[in-house]
Amino acid sequence: MKKLLLVIATLVVMPAAIAHDFDAGSIYIDHPMVEEAPPGARVLGGYVSLHNQGAEDDRLVAIESTAAEKVEMHRSVVTDGIARMTPLTEGIELPAGEMVWLGSDGIHAMFIGPDKRYVAGDEIPATLVFEKAGRIDVTFKVEERATTRAPGHGDHAQ
Amino acid sequence: MKSLRVLRIVLWALVLVVGAGAAYLFLSARNAPVDAGPAVYATPFTLIDQDGNEVTEADFLGKPSAWFYGFTHCPDVCPTTLSEMSALLEALGPDADRLQAVFVSIDPERDDVATMKDYVEYFDDRIVGLTGSLENVSAMAKARYIFFEKVPLEGGDYTMEHSASVHLADAGGSFFGTLDGEEPFDTRLQKLRRLIE
Fold this sequence. Notes:
The structure holds 2 protein chains of 2 kinds. By secondary structure, chain A is mainly beta. Chain A has a single domain, classed as Immunoglobulin-like, CATH 2.60.40.1890. The longest helix of chain A is centred in the N-terminal third of the chain and has 17 residues. The N and C termini of chain A lie far apart (57 Å). The C terminus of chain A is likely disordered. By secondary structure, chain B is an alpha+beta fold. Chain B is 40% helix and 22% strand. Chain B is built from 5 helices and 9 strands, in the order αβββαβαβαββββα. In chain B, helix 2 crosses helix 5. The longest helix of chain B has 30 residues. The radius of gyration of chain B is 23 Å and the shape is elongated. The interface between A and B is large, with 35 and 42 residues.
């Protein structure tokens, strides 16, 4: 019985330990990450998913980090073949009950002027500032850049 | 009688010449790309590569090429395009030798030679990185119908708007087509294979 409890406890606790998430009351913050950039890059793209589980709409008004000169929220879009970037100066709306992913629709956090070179495995401390949920400290994990490689393309190379 | 014989030889010679000419025209027409436009990629330019060498259009002719125009202060579209270019080169395997991939900075005021070297070689050292004077970059972009524009941001900073797709040129410098980031990876790979065939 004791053993069974241990197994159950492990199953319950383990995913929480492996997953990388933060709970800010009504806002569930999942997997803040930054893509590793080339040496000397003055900007880093940051991504995170935000699930507003509360009954009220909220808004991500700012991201602060001591590891960069400033952090801005942007949307990059490609329209008529032209890449454009618009600063989201009003922040990002988080409608009640919905999940908003910085990473889709070209929305991202831009860490400008990082204090050093960050490589995969590093962590960048930051604070997400919500209009209603307040200030939440999180850690952006630096990860290798993912490419949309064709599955198993390595095997097809001639 | 002798003059008739000469005439016959002359006429047969003419038949040979016309036949050879027709055959030449037929074969060369068959080998020409179907929709080769004007060779805008053969338009003269002078820029600096990531090793500090001056390069011109001549350095990129004679081999098909894939060109992307972006800037290093770009967190999203540009690094994604370059890492996908690297993945495409990898997927081409040894055939990648028959293609030259080039990244041109349309923000040469911030992208100096050292920045370009670090940047392109991080993704793939087979990608050439070009920068230069704003005047020279602008002239190249204009000749190739590439759009870019500086857009001021709050606080005195700026960002760049720019043509987003990868432009392909054949060995003679004619525009061959584009790779679009929205297309499936395999579509883009097939386009590159068709370009280097």
